[in-house]
C-alpha cells in the first residue's frame, strides 16, 4: 500500500518485486502469508494472536504486526479504522493522516489508513504508519506497519507483498517455520497497540 513516500490503497493488490517468498502459517492456521526477501517472524509468547515481521535492514527501524481480533457479526473495517483513530492513533505526537481508503484483501473488505507522526515528539525522526483492517467471518486482522519515514518507499513493495499473499484461515496444510530463538522474542509491553 505504500506509494512514492507512503502507502496508497490503489496499490494494494498490485504486483510486487518480491517473488517466491517463504510461506508462513500462524499456529492453528490463523492466517498464512508469504515473507518477502529476508524478512523474519517474531512470535509473541503471551499473545498467540499477534505476529511481528521485520525487514533485514535495521536502519529502517521497521516492523509489520498482524493481529487477529474477534468482531461481532456485521462489523465493518471502516468502524475499526475509526476506532483506532479515536482511541490510539490520533494521540501520537504530530499525527497527520495522509490517506484513507477501502480495498479488498483475499476477497474480504478492508479499510486502510496512512499517516505520519513524530517519534517521541521529535520532528527530526518522522515515522510512517499504515494500518489495514480486514474483516472476515467473525474476526478481523489488523496490519500495523511502521518505519522511519525515509524508508517507507523502499519497503512499499514488501508490504504490498504481505497484503497480496495474506490468506485468513488457509485450508492447505503448509509446514510452519521454526520459532525464532528466545533472544528474539518481543516484549509485548512495547507493542504499539
**Would you report the number of β strands?**
10
Q: How much is the average pLDDT?
A: 82
Q: What characteristic shape results from the CA principal axes?
A: globular
Top CATH class: Alpha Beta
Q: Give the CATH superfamily.
A: Mog1/PsbP, alpha/beta/alpha sandwich
Helix content: 10-25%
Helix/strand structural class: mainly beta
Please give the domain count.
Answer: 1
CATH topology: Protein Transport Mog1p, Chain A
Strands of the biggest beta sheet: in what spatial order? Answer: 3-4-5-9-8-7-6
| N- and C-termini, Cα separation | 20 Å
What is the H/E order? EEEEEHEEEEHE
What's the Cα radius of gyration? 16 Å
Strand content: 35-45%
Set down the secondary structure blueprint.
Layout: E1 22-25, E2 31-35, E3 40-43, E4 50-54, E5 63-70, H1 77-87, E6 96-105, E7 108-118, E8 126-135, E9 139-148, H2 152-165, E10 167-168
Antiparallel strand pairs: 1-2, 2-10, 3-4, 4-5, 5-9, 6-7, 7-8, 8-9
Nutshell version of this structure?
The chain has 193 residues and is mainly β. It has helices at residues 77-87, 152-165; strands at 22-25, 31-35, 40-43, 50-54, 63-70, 96-105, 108-118, 126-135, 139-148, 167-168.
Task: Kindly describe this structure.
With 193 residues, this protein is mostly beta strands. The chain has one domain (9-172): 3-Layer(aba) Sandwich (Protein Transport Mog1p, Chain A). The protein is 13% helix and 36% strand. The chain is built from two helices and ten strands. It has a seven-stranded antiparallel beta sheet, sandwiched between helices. The protein has a three-stranded antiparallel beta sheet with strand order 1-2-10. Strand 7 and strand 8 form a beta hairpin. The longest helix has 14 residues, at 152-165. The protein is globular and about 45 Å long. It starts with 21 loop residues before the first strand and ends in a 25-residue tail after the last strand. The model is unreliable at 1-18 and 173-193 (pLDDT under 50).
